[in-house]
Amino acid sequence: MAKRDKRRGDGFRRDLAKLVRQLVEEGQERDRDSEPIGPLLREHLGGGAGARDLPVYTQELDGWELPNLQLALDEIAGRAGWEVRVVGIGGQARHYGGFGLGLLLTSDHVSVGAMEYVNVPVGPGRTLACVELAVLLLSTPDGAVALLVNRSHEHHEGPPLAVQAASPVEGLAQTFLVDLRERMEARDVYRGQLITVEVSRHGAHRIVFLERPVVAPEDVILPDGALEHIERHVLGPTRHRDALVAQGRHLSRGLLLWGPPGTGKTHTVRYLTGRLEGATTLLLSGASLGMLSAFATLARRLAPSVVVLDDVDLIAQERTYGPFGESATLFELMNQMSGLADDADVAFVLTTNRPDALEPALAARPGRVDLAIQVPLPDSAARRRLLDLYGRGLALELADPDAIVERTEGVTASFVKELLRRAALDVAESGRATVTDADVAAALDELLGETGALTRAFLGVRRPGDPEPAPDPHAWMRGGWTSAG
Question: How many alpha carbons lie under 13 Å from residue 276 in its C-beta half-sphere?
Fold first, then answer.
C-alpha cells in the first residue's frame, strides 16, 4: 500500500510540475505578444531619458462627470489638425499601488490591452459609451500630450474619476486640462435636465434622469391664489432676469412649502418641475440630502436651476451637528442658500411636514427663504375638486357628492385619492362598471372605521381617538420621488 501511495504522490507531483511549466510558458508567450505602454508613451512624448521625468498634472473629478469628459474628448479629437490615438491598458494595472501616468512613463511592465467602456445615462432612456481606463496620445498643433483617463471602481482608493496629462512642451499639459474642463462644462449632459440621486443601501450614489412630469394647473388644488404666487416667485426671476439684474435685484430665492403629509406639497413641486423646462432641476430627498453641497455647486454652474429638497425637516433631525449645535446638513443648506451671487439664477424649493424643526435656523438667517406657503388640509370646496380630479376615468355617478364632501372633513388629498381607488376596486370585484354614492360611502366607512386607523395615518389623516404615530428614527434614510405629497 505504501508503494501505491508513493506512486500516486509521484504522479501528482509530475502533473503539477507539468501544469506549472505550461502556465509559465503561456505567460512568457503573452509577454512576447503584448506591447508595453511605457516605450509607446515615451516615444510619443519625444523619446529619450527626459520623457521619464516629465511632470504629470492631475484633474480630479466627480464620478458623475464621466459622460461630460467623454463628450469633451470626442469634441477635441475632432478638431482640425489634431490626431488622437486611444490605447487600452491590459491586466490588473489599475490595482497597482501608485498607478498613474507617472508609473506608465517609467515602467515597462504594463502592457497594451483591450479598451474598457461603460454605458452611462445621459438623459431619460439614453446612454453614452464612455472610456473607463485608457491612455490617449494626442498630437496637437502646439505639441504632443499624453493623457490617462482612470475611473475608479467603487471602494477603490483615490478620486472617483481622474485625468492626468503630461507634455514635453512647457505649460501645454496644464493648458490642455483647463481647456478640457471648459469643454466639459459647455457640453454638460445635466444642463436643462430633471435629475435625482438614488442611494443604495451601501451608500453608493447614482444620478438618475427623469422625464419631466406634465401636471395641469387645474390639477393642483391649493387655496385661491397660492399656485400663482408660487409660480411667480420661482419662475418670475428667470423670465425677467435681464431687467432684474439691470436694476440691481438679486435672482436667488427660496420657497418653503409646509403643511401636513398628504396635502399636495410634492404634487405642487411636480407641477413646478414640469413648468421649468429649460432649467436644470435637481431633486434631493432622504439619504441623498447628504449630497447637497455637490449639487448646489452643480446648480450654480448650470443656472437657471432649481434645487428641490423634499421633506427637508428630516435633516434637522440628524444626529450630526454643525458649529452652532444644529444638524450639519441643515447648517450646510443655510450656507449654500446664502452663498449665491446676486446674479445666480438659482431657486431652492423646500418641502416640510414640520416647519417648527426648521424655523429656528431660518429665523436666525433672514433671507434664505423669502416665501413660505402653507399647503393646508383641503376645505370643502377643495375636497369637491379632488373628487372631480381623482374621479377622472371612472364611471362615477354621484347623486349627492356634497354628502361625501361633508363626511371627509379633515382628510388629505391622498385620502380622497385612495377613497375613489377603493370604491373602483370594490365595483370591479362585483362585476359592475359604475361607481355610485353607495360604493363611495362603503369605502368611506371602511377607511373611517376603527380598523382603518393605521391606514389613515399612512394617508396623513388622524381622527379623534387615533393613536399618535410612532416616530421613525430611520426616516431620514428614505428617499424617492413620489407623485403625491
Answer: 36
Alpha-carbon distance values, 273 to 196, 231, 279, 365, 401 (Å): 12, 11, 9, 27, 33
Written as one letter, the residue type at 264 is: G
Enumerate residues 6+ apart whose C-beta is below 8 A from 135. 37, 41, 86, 87, 89, 101, 104, 146, 147, 148, 149
| Burial classification of residue 255, based on how many CB atoms lie within 10 Å of its CB (0-12 exposed, 13-18 middle, 19 or more buried) | buried
Indicate the class that CATH gives domain 380-477. Answer: mainly alpha
Given a contact cutoff of 8 angstroms between Cβ atoms, the answer to whether 267 and 259 are in contact is no
DSSP structure class, residue 153:
P
Helix H or strand E segment including 72: helix 66-77
Query: pTM of this prediction?
Result: 0.78
Q: Going by C-beta distance under 8 Å and a sequence separation of 6 or more, which residues neighbour residue 161?
A: 60, 61, 62, 63, 65, 66, 69, 149, 150, 151, 152
CATH number of 194-374: 3.40.50.300
pLDDT in tens, the chain (485 residues): 555 555 555 666 666 656 655 544 444 444 445 789 999 999 999 887 678 889 999 999 988 999 999 999 999 999 999 999 999 998 766 666 568 999 899 888 888 998 889 999 999 999 999 999 999 999 999 999 999 999 986 555 567 899 999 999 999 999 999 999 999 999 999 999 999 888 766 666 788 999 999 999 999 999 999 999 999 999 999 999 899 989 988 888 889 999 998 899 999 999 999 998 889 999 988 777 777 888 888 888 899 999 998 888 777 665 455 555 556 777 777 777 776 667 789 999 999 888 887 777 777 777 788 899 999 999 999 999 999 999 999 999 999 999 999 999 999 999 999 999 999 999 999 999 999 999 999 999 988 886 666 676 667 676 665 655 544 433 333 333 333 33
Q: Which helix (H) or strand (E) holds 295?
A: helix 292-301
CB 280 within 8 A of CB 191: yes
Round to the nearest angstrom and report the end-to-end CA distance of the chain.
Answer: 80
Can you state the percent helix, strand and coil of the chain, rounding each to 5? 45, 20, 35
**What does the domain layout of the chain look like in residue ranges?**
37-186, 194-374, 380-477
> Dihedral of the CA atoms 364, 366, 371, 377 (nearest 10)?
10
Provide the 8-state DSSP code for 164: E
Report the C-alpha gap between 417 and 26 in whole angstroms.
68
Size (the chain), residues: 485
- Give CA–CA dist 329/320, Å, rounded: 8
